[in-house]
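Entry 14. Ran structure prediction on the chain below.
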Amino acid sequence: MAYVSRIKDDILDGLFEAILLLNNEEECYRFFEDICTIAELKSLAQRLAVAKMLDAEQTYTAIAEETGASTATISRVKRSLHYGADGYRLMLDKLRTKNKGAGNKKKD
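Output, structure tokens:
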């Protein structure tokens, strides 16, 4: 069964369509620097870092110290990890798979 978002609309569809057209990190930087404020980008990056650390079962104290995230932010990310739309889980699994593949490549 396909996922049905509670927030789906035409404007968000257009945003996600544009994001999916990005080909590399440079294009991501260029697009996101234009569409987001630096604070918004830092906040998004912080939340992903928090999710990774929660997934690694690190403590709130360690996460707060390393990321600068508040305990409220850490709690919100944890709630999303456990009760959200599984977006964090999807991305964490993809990153883990990608990093395992990168670790198996031989260096010349």
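Residues 22 and 28 are 6 Å apart (CA to CA). Will compare against last week's run tomorrow.
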